[in-house]
TrEMBL record, chain A:
<dbReference type="Pfam" id="PF00441">
    <property type="entry name" value="Acyl-CoA_dh_1"/>
</dbReference>
<dbReference type="InterPro" id="IPR009100">
    <property type="entry name" value="AcylCoA_DH/oxidase_NM_dom_sf"/>
</dbReference>
<feature type="domain" description="Acyl-CoA dehydrogenase/oxidase N-terminal">
    <location>
        <begin position="9"/>
        <end position="107"/>
    </location>
</feature>
<dbReference type="InterPro" id="IPR009075">
    <property type="entry name" value="AcylCo_DH/oxidase_C"/>
</dbReference>
<keyword id="KW-0285">Flavoprotein</keyword>
<feature type="domain" description="Acyl-CoA dehydrogenase/oxidase C-terminal">
    <location>
        <begin position="225"/>
        <end position="357"/>
    </location>
</feature>
<dbReference type="InterPro" id="IPR037069">
    <property type="entry name" value="AcylCoA_DH/ox_N_sf"/>
</dbReference>
<dbReference type="InterPro" id="IPR046373">
    <property type="entry name" value="Acyl-CoA_Oxase/DH_mid-dom_sf"/>
</dbReference>
<dbReference type="Pfam" id="PF02771">
    <property type="entry name" value="Acyl-CoA_dh_N"/>
</dbReference>
<comment type="similarity">
    <text>Belongs to the acyl-CoA dehydrogenase family.</text>
</comment>
<dbReference type="InterPro" id="IPR036250">
    <property type="entry name" value="AcylCo_DH-like_C"/>
</dbReference>
<dbReference type="InterPro" id="IPR013786">
    <property type="entry name" value="AcylCoA_DH/ox_N"/>
</dbReference>
<keyword id="KW-0274">FAD</keyword>
<protein>
    <submittedName>
        <fullName>Acyl-CoA/acyl-ACP dehydrogenase</fullName>
    </submittedName>
</protein>
Amino acid sequence: MTPWLAAARAVGSEIAGRYADDVDSRARFPAESLAALKERGLLGILVPVSAGGPAADIADVVAICHELGRHCASTAMIYAMHQIQVACIVRHAGTSPWQQAFMQRLVHEQLLLASATTEVGVGGDVRSSVCALDERRGKFRLTKQTPVISYAGNCDAILATARRTAQSPASDQRLVVIPRADATLELQENWNTLGMRGTCSNGYRLLAEGEMGQVLPDAYADISAQTMLPMSHLVWGGLWLGIASEALSRARAFVRAEAKRKPGALPAGAGRLAQATGELQSMKSDLLSCLHQYEQARASEDVLSGIPFAVAMNNLKILSSEKLVRIVGQAMLICGLEGYRNDSIFSIGRLLRDAHSAVVMVSNDRIAANNANLGLVLRDDPELLA
Amino acid sequence: MSDPLKVRIRTVLKTAGSLQQGVEAIRDDSDLHAAGLTSHATVSLMLALEEAFDIEFPDRLLRRKTFSSIDAIAEALAEIGVRDEAA
Ligand SMILES: Cc1cc2nc3c(=O)[nH]c(=O)nc-3n(C[C@H](O)[C@H](O)[C@H](O)COP(=O)(O)OP(=O)(O)OC[C@H]3O[C@@H](n4cnc5c(N)ncnc54)[C@H](O)[C@@H]3O)c2cc1C
């Protein structure tokens, strides 16, 4: 186990787990766990050695998300969303002094990054923007109507998508780094949801000004294909696996207690538990194989931008979110009334509510429609071990 | 401008590209993505080019960069053996 994972495990079991119910019931930011992750230096681990970071792999981050997901899904989701933004900066930051200095700050100050991609008017179609960078003499202004920016009130900077210029078409986007201090956030909508309540994903009118050196040089289309999309689906896959594992862990404890009470008789829930364990295994295999695929592809922009890679990463998201909901549902059935109660040690309620965010968080129907379109030109994949 | 291959590419772009401006406003080296070619429309463009030139793009050419400009498309077509003369 890496020291990072060991540290995350300690944060998960000693802190995130302890406050998870309070975070959920009050829909409040999990300040204790984020402070602990910061204190242990876990926010900047992806930063390369050249910028003063420890250069952890994506796999390390996925493992941490999985660990945190077992204890507090909101904490895990915040950590995951933050690392998606860090990965975009690590891979796509330009040579501008501003961006280089910012990368170092990610380690030294353990900055927490939020994301403003979703926009009023285009919904979850994150590859289109309404708002645009208004550039004048090396400076920009931006106004964006955002239906959700998770933990915006607690972050240190926000990465926002926008059209490159006021004349650009909706798909010609850039990603800009906005320090929280340079942004005005006018609250428009409160986050009162079924689950993932601790992400505090309020809606805002975001107003910002800055220098053009804060705009990442790569087209957002490339950032999205090569980093944001695969990274999102991998880290989400990690924390969703954590939620599913925790649900089955409670179900297993329930079934085992039954078995001990009546030795020799197979408990009623044992068959269902075995079935759900099989589904968890396939969820884990999908995640690990896509992680492997990403690691193989990461050196080649062409492979990362290719259609087979995009289809595979999209499938990971659709399949693992569906499996998550099914597995947690199975756990609820196995634990029965004890699972349905909010105050029992076998309670599944919070896990079930958090799980349902997975299919909505970039709608599975939208992703399936993208895959249907890409499928029109997808080629056969005849070689098994290639 | 009079390169017959590129003229044919323009004809395909006109119907399949869903560009913001007309194809007339696009130079051979203009960035088609900056002109509004979305990833959804890129797939339609691939299919329309395959139909028009009676070819099939190999896997390695199925990426954004191949369709980033009229020049890039012409290069990719040449690479898979499409000749310059009008059919
Ligand atoms: C916990 C959580 C945290 C989030 N945090 C952030 C954040 O920090 N920053 C951020 O920018 N966003 C965030 N989001 C938003 C998220 O990224 C998605 O953009 C959002 O969930 C999509 O919302 P939507 O369903 O209203 O939009 P849409 O994707 O527009 O979907 C609307 C409806 O249309 C249907 N639909 C859409 N497209 C298609 C299609 N092609 N085919 C068929 N049906 C379709 C969908 O099924 C859905 O019913 C968060 C979401 C969640 C759940």
